[in-house]
TrEMBL record:
Species per Swiss-Prot/TrEMBL record: Hyphomonas atlantica
Any GO BP annotation: L-tryptophan biosynthetic process
UniProt key word Isomerase: yes
Residue ranges of domain N-(5'phosphoribosyl) anthranilate isomerase (PRAI) in the record: 4-204
Catalytic activity: N-(5-phospho-beta-D-ribosyl)anthranilate = 1-(2-carboxyphenylamino)-1-deoxy-D-ribulose 5-phosphate
The family this protein is said to belong to: Belongs to the TrpF family.
Keyword line: Amino-acid biosynthesis, Aromatic amino acid biosynthesis, Isomerase, Tryptophan biosynthesis
E.C. designation(s): 5.3.1.24
Class of enzymatic activity (EC top level): isomerase
Protein name listed in UniProt: N-(5'-phosphoribosyl)anthranilate isomerase
Pathway: Amino-acid biosynthesis; L-tryptophan biosynthesis; L-tryptophan from chorismate: step 3/5
Cited HAMAP family: PRAI (MF_00135)
């Protein structure tokens, strides 16, 4: 069954709802530029609502002090969504011993070539590149050309992200063979505010395809 990450939750009821509705992972965004930003104290209390889902801390070019604080909160998974190099990802893996995900922005076939360099990443998140001049690296609700993945062999476990929603996720899974998917904007009616029904619809569409 396709695994699902719901990213950018800020509300305890929605966290509980996503977890009880079958989300495998729930992402918390520690990037201040994001409309889904959560503070560390807020995350500490949201973590108590994740139930059987696994929490993922989304960090952008984090310094060691931030990493240590986030690990101290109890996050088992760190998603790196900035310009982290393969060596920096390996450093973070060695420093924390945690599960490390690396996001890769894709707009053309060449963008997929460098994924092989991230040998220390436990999982790759293959996402759309942000638009030019954007103030943040993800969560734009934009898809890339999924056909770029049709002849691609993933070097390690991965998720598909970028512009997914309840109406297109089944097609995306069929076309790319993604074993797991990630969504943020596609389950919001207002930027940064998740919608219960859209979360349920997305989980149902992804899990039944
Ligand atoms: O979601 C954000 O606001 C965000 C901010 C800064 C860095 C990364 C961010 N999101 C990363 C994610 O994992 C999103 O779920 C992914 O980019 C897909 O987003 P969307 O296209 O909106 O579904």
């Amino acid at each position: 069954m396709t695994q699902v990450k719901i990213c950018g939750l800020t509300d305890p009821d929605l966290v509980r709802h996503a977890a009880q509705s079958g989300a495998d992972w729930i992402g918390f965004v520690f990037a201040e530029a994001s409309p889904r930003f959560v503070t560390e104290p807020a995350a500490a209390s949201l973590l108590m609502q994740v139930g059987p889902a696994r929490p993922v801390a989304l960090l952008v070019d984090p310094v060691d002090e931030q990493i240590d604080r986030i690990v101290g909160l109890g996050f088992p998974i760190l998603q790196l969504h900035g310009q982290e190099t393969p060596d920096r990802v390996a450093d973070i893996k060695a420093r924390t011993g945690k599960e490390i995900w690396k996001a890769i922005g894709v707009a053309e076939a060449d963008d997929l070539v460098r994924v092989g360099d991230y040998a220390a990443a436990d999982r790759l998140l293959i996402d759309a590149k942000p638009p030019k001049g954007a103030d943040r690296t993800g969560g734009h609700g934009l898809a890339f050309d999924w056909n770029l993945l049709s002849a691609w062999t993933a070097p390690r476990p991965w998720l598909l992200a970028g512009g997914l929603n309840p109406g297109n996720v089944a097609d995306a899974i069929r076309l790319t063979g993604a074993p797991a998917v990630d969504v943020s904007s596609g389950v919001e009616r207002r930027k940064g505010v998740k919608d219960r029904d859209l979360v349920s619809e997305f989980l149902s569409a992804a899990k039944h395809s």
